[in-house]
Amino acid sequence: MTKDGDQVALRRLLSDVTAGLGDQHTHTTLTQALADLGMPPVEEGSKRERVERSLSQTTDGRLLQVAERFLKTQRTDAPTRNLLQDAIWAAASPPEIPLRTRRELARALASGDLVQHGTRFMALLDSFWHLDDDLWSLGPSTRSLRARIERHFLRNTDWPVEELFEQLGAFDAGDARFARFAEALVAGDVLLDETVQRRLAAAMNAHLGTAGLKLRQTGTLGGYPRFTLVPLQLAHARAPKNVIFATPAKPDIRFLSAVDNDIEVVNGDALIYDRTVTDDGIRWRDLQSWWQEREHITDPGEAKKSLYARLRASLPDNSPGQRNLFDNYHRILGSEVYDMPALLPEVWLHWDPRTVRERGPQALLRFRMDFLLLLPHGQRIVLEVDGSQHYTRDRGRTPDTAKYAAMVAADRDLKLSGYEVYRFGHDELRNETTARTILEAFLPRLFQHHKVTGRH
């Protein structure tokens, strides 16, 4: 299905699930309910009409946010929940997990390892699948999927894991649901045993590798390892060190300790983020905490303002497009920005103490990025605003194919080094209103694609 088709299907689904809001609220409380879902206020008409008109006025770029908030704030049955989850997760373009990989993975798992605690295991299954599927039963059913799992998998153990997956529908499920299910199977709060966690992850990885995937430890949760399914190229990505940013001028750098890779800027105004970059990447709250400590600022509000001003001041005066991107990134995210990736401007990728004349014209190719986002699980996103200087000479009067060739060559190098590059034409972002419209549509899709969510 196309992206447009996805939006139409999601809007239709939201129309169905929000139709009952009017029955649950008075006119007064409905206003707040719509706001809580991120839908625009509509004050006139019946309650049903207000909901319908509010949804129709919700932009495509905000539909996913509405769906996510609906799941968090409203009670739904399992089939409806799953439909919403599938729509939300599909927007992240999940990696394909072929049927053969799924079956071989299931055959490699031992039921005794999966079920360390029956109640916790059933709660896990409940969160992904529709277990109470006997619609004719008025009470506890002996024919529901829940009852059959308890009988054949937990008590009598005559179902192997492959049969359990078959009955759940895991082999036919969307890639995103299967991926999250695999992660949940090795979660510490389900197994409560690190040895078993690692054994299960290793067994799964023996087959996930054929699909270019790996369950990688990306942190801890409650003292237990936390595993995330990531592409193999990210599974081996190194954590960034000494992020040099917020200056358009080449900094003068020296090593304080070459052994420890400690550096300082001798002159110039570059910033160096020298804290450990965790698997969460660098969020605004991480950057603000670092800045507050660096500048000895006691008030968090003052730290926020001064950091924002410092970063914005590093942007070139002759690029309103870059300024509009920076400003609108923070306006669109609003208070959610604290737990979202920090937008780092003017980031130095390569640094060479010698000049281009000494080292050659390729020495400083792609030496500075307009913006860098360090996302969870080692993902690195570059945002570039291309003015005419990227592909012309003589102040924009003459096309320069050599400049363009150098730019696309540098992009290839970046991608091979683990960076994802997204380019904007400067004219797209020159006007503040137009820039906001473009970024309101782009940012939610970017974060969904790379599985980035804020923490609340």
List keywords for this structure.
single chain; 456 residues; alpha+beta; 3 domains; four-stranded mixed beta sheet; two-stranded antiparallel sheet; 22 helices; 49% helix
Give the overall form: globular
Cα-based radius of gyration, to the nearest Å: 26 Å
* Secondary-structure-derived class: alpha+beta
Major beta sheet, specifics?
4 strands, mixed
Share in helix: 40-55%
- Percentage of residues in DSSP E strands: 5-15%
Tell me the span between the first and last alpha carbons: 32 Å
- Lateral arrangement of strands in the main beta sheet: 7-8-9-12
How would you describe the overall organization of this protein?
- This protein is an alpha+beta fold and 456 residues long.
- The chain has three domains: 3-75 and 82-90; 99-235, no CATH class; 243-449, no CATH class.
- It is built from 22 helices and twelve strands.
- A four-stranded mixed sheet has the order 7-8-9-12.
- Helix 1 packs parallel to helix 5 (63-73), helix 9 packs antiparallel against helix 12 and helix 18 packs across helix 22 (432-449).
- The longest helix is centred in the last third of the chain and has 18 residues, at 432-449.
- The radius of gyration is 26 Å and the shape is globular.
- The chain starts with a helix and ends in a 7-residue tail after the last helix.
- The mean pLDDT is 86.
What's the helix and strand layout?
Layout: H1 3-18, H2 21-24, H3 27-36, H4 47-57, H5 63-73, H6 78-90, H7 99-107, H8 111-114, H9 118-128, H10 145-155, H11 161-168, H12 175-185, H13 188-191, H14 194-208, E1 213-221, E2 224-231, H15 232-235, E3 243-245, E4 252-257, E5 262-267, E6 271-273, H16 284-295, H17 300-313, H18 320-333, E7 344-348, H19 356-359, E8 368-374, E9 380-386, E10 392-393, E11 398-399, H20 401-416, E12 419-425, H21 426-429, H22 432-449
Parallel strand pairs: 9-12
Antiparallel strand pairs: 1-2, 3-6, 4-5, 7-8, 8-9, 10-11
